[in-house]
Amino acid sequence: KGKSRATPVARGRLRVAVYEYKPSLQEDMAAADLIVSHAGAGSVMESLRMGKKLVVVANQALMDNHQMELADAMAARGLVDVATPDNIAQVMGSGRYKQLKSPPPLDLGPMREIVMKSVGELKGSEKKKI
To answer: Which of the following CATH numbers is that of domain 32-104: 3.40.50.2000, 3.40.50.1820, 3.40.50.720, 3.40.50.150?
Structure first.
């Protein structure tokens, strides 16, 4: 278990676990019906890959506001719901997260083609140098 000064809360079916640090959240995420997370790329992608409903709370104070950009882009696609610390109660109460879409299946084909083409070009340039 992780360490926390906060006390876990349970009301009806809602269970809220809070920790300052936990080596892995995999088990908790797998058991969750809904994940509320910061809008970091790793957390967002991991939650979506697991097929979980996701509400993200972006840290708007970060340089370049990159968390908000990611949150807005994912919300525009219907993959996440976005909240702020000021409106999270309203967002959760609205139940919009129930209507979120599942992400499309991961297709690495285009990336594979780019890598293979690049490798082919590298091999071709090495042959020319010899």
So the answer is: 3.40.50.2000
